[in-house]
Design goal:
By secondary structure, the chain is of the alpha+beta class. It is built from 18 helices and 11 strands. The chain has helices at about 10-15, 35-40, 45-50, 50-60, 125-140, 180-195, 195-210, 220-240, 290-310, 315-325, 330-345, 350-365, 370-380, 395-405, 410-415, 425-435, 440-450, 460; strands spanning about 20, 30-35, 70, 75-80, 80-85, 90-100, 105-110, 150-160, 165-175, 245, 265-270. The strands form 4 sheets. It has a 5-stranded antiparallel β-sheet with strand order 2-8-9-7-6, with helices on both faces. A two-stranded antiparallel ribbon has the order 1-3. Strands 4-5 form a two-stranded antiparallel sheet. Helix 8 packs parallel to helix 11, helix 11 packs across helix 15 (about 410-415) and helix 13 (about 370-380) packs antiparallel against helix 15. The longest helix is centred in the middle third of the chain and has 23 residues, at about 220-240. It is globular, with a radius of gyration of 23 Å. The protein binds adenosine monophosphate and magnesium ion. Adenosine monophosphate binds near residues 91, 116, 123 and 248.
Length: about 475
């Protein structure tokens, strides 16, 4: 049997939210990529994971004794519209494992239909699963809370999309898969029955697992809400600082842990513009780069609504408390963001620094400057190097004022990434992978694993996309 213990805590404690499900056996499984450092960190032997038994675990066909694979039930607002039952249509929670300190969910995506599949086929394809692997690992290396990718296994099954594509299963590790949508489902039941037991149990579980300090508070549920607001304010600020666009910030894709989850249509912005949208279905720009803080606050308002009955028996009082905490989101977000921005510019807090940041962002937008390489050029300029793309007239006066503040090059070097998963590079690597050449994906992963350390010979990985790579579009759930 696998040298691994998987608990079934969620499946056991929340039968109301967990439907037993079985992975579909892949006809011809082939491990495409394995995250060996992550495996080791979780106490999993990479060699074993590469064996037929290990691949059985990574595709859900061979699970250890005691594990109980389940599809999780949840609801959610998708593009603002409430869907009362969503749930894992193509995902499975295999169970929880521990690295000796924290507990993690081990789950699969693309492992076949579950009772939540509705019209879907329950499957996933190689390209998007490798894409999630690359981008989530890049986020991890950037120091941003995220689910992680353990492996992608090709199934050998054809999957019908617009064309026939090769199927794959992603094995994913998360602090948990609790999301705002989990609470929405339970709160909806609580409203219908007047019974708060399950809601309270789910909130206690979330506190235990993610925000244990909330248990010390006078009202632990109010403290839970405040903790999630804090975690998400910090998370979205981190996204904004690196130019990450999630693309599908539905409430079912908003975690209670504060991790980034669900890498579908996400992508990194190149030329700075808050209106940037990549997702092919986001016609109104609801999830545009610059909207992300506001959308997160909206999602947290939906979370607050689920917890109101636990805040106080007095409805008005509950609402007042919720509003107070919710109104704290933007100031908290802005605090995280401005701390991060000051570091990116190498500046200490001052009125002049704030003005410099505002003006720089305006210049970036008006001149369609690449966000990531701008900050690296600026870092070089702070180190006394050439100003490269900054030599532009548009920046001349701004640069003088910025220099007058004696920017701290060391801080800038530490916080401004050289390498992000640029869309054209990701696409190139995935195209090669579709021809069975995984080398470009591996190379890209190696580059992205150390985003802050500039290395000779990797200039192409730091450069923006060539102009002919315009109009990039991304897709959901493919
Ligand atoms: P997402 O936007 O990827 O978070 O997915 C939204 C919902 O659609 C979730 O309930 C998924 O489980 C479900 N879903 C997405 N793709 C499929 C598929 N191919 N088969 C079944 N369910 C799916
Ligand atoms: Mg989702």
């Amino acid at each position: 049997m696998p040298p691994l213990v998987l608990t079934a805590d969620f499946a056991r404690e929340f039968p109301e939210l967990a439907v037993r499900a079985q992975a579909e056996a892949p006809p011809n499984p082939r491990l495409l990529i394995l995250n060996e450092p992550l495996a080791t960190q979780l106490g999993l032997d990479p060699q074993w994971l590469k064996s037929p038994e290990g691949i059985g675990l990574l595709t859900g066909t061979a699970v250890p004794d005691g594990a109980t694979p389940v599809a999780q039930a949840y609801a959610g607002h998708q593009f603002g519209n409430y869907v009362p039952v969503l749930g894992d249509g193509r995902a499975l929670l295999l169970g929880e494992l521990t690295d000796g300190q924290s507990q993690f969910d081990l789950s699969l995506k693309g492992s076949g239909r579950t009772s939540f599949a509705r019209g879907g086929d329950g499957l996933a394809v190689v390209g998007p699963m490798l894409r999630e692997y690359v981008i989530s690992e890049a986020m991890y290396a950037l120091g941003i809370p995220t689910t992680r990718a353990l492996a992608v296994t090709a199934t050998g099954r054809d999957v019908q999309r617009e064309t026939v594509l090769p199927g794959a299963v992603l094995a994913r590790v998360a602090a948990s898969h609790l999301r705002v949508g989990s609470f929405q489902l339970v709160a909806q039941q609580a409203r219908a029955t007047g019974d708060l037991t399950l809601l309270r149990r789910l909130a206690d579980h979330a506190i235990d697992r993610h925000h244990p300090q909330a248990a010390e508070a006078e009202n632990r549920y109010i403290a839970l809400f405040a903790a999630v607001v804090e975690a998400q304010a910090s998370l979205v600020a981190r996204w904004m600082l690196v130019g990450f666009i999630h693309g599908v910030m539905n409430t079912d894709n908003t975690t209670i842990s504060g991790e980034t989850i669900d890498y579908g249509p996400c992508a990194f912005m190149e030329a700075y513009d808050p209106a940037t949208v990549f997702s092919s279905i986001d016609h109104a720009g609801r999830y545009a780069f610059g909207n992300q803080p506001l959308v997160m606050q909206w999602n947290l308002a939906r979370f607050a609504e689920t917890l109101l009955p636990l805040f106080s028996d007095d409805e008005d009082k509950a609402l007042t408390v919720a509003m107070e905490i919710l109104e704290g989101f933007m100031p908290r977000y802005h605090g995280f963001w401005s701390d991060g921005m000051l570091a990116k510019f190498g500046l200490a807090r001052s009125m002049e620094a704030a003005a410099l940041i505002d003006q720089a962002l305006m210049l970036l937008k008006n001149n369609a400057v690449d966000y990531t390489s701008f900050f690296r050029s600026l870092t070089k300029a702070a180190q006394g190097g050439a100003e490269g793309p900054l030599a532009d007239n548009a920046f001349e006066e701004w640069l003088q004022r910025w220099r007058a503040q004696t920017p701290d090059a060391e801080t800038m070097q530490r916080v401004n990434p050289v390498y992000i998963p640029r869309n054209h590079l990701v696409e190139q690597a995935l195209t090669a992978a579709m021809r069975d050449d995984l080398a470009p994906v591996q190379k890209l992963l190696g580059v992205l694993a150390e985003p802050y350390r500039e290395r000779d010979g990797l200039e192409d990985y730091a450069a923006p996309a060539p102009p002919e790579f315009g109009g990039y579009r991304t897709f959901c759930g493919t």
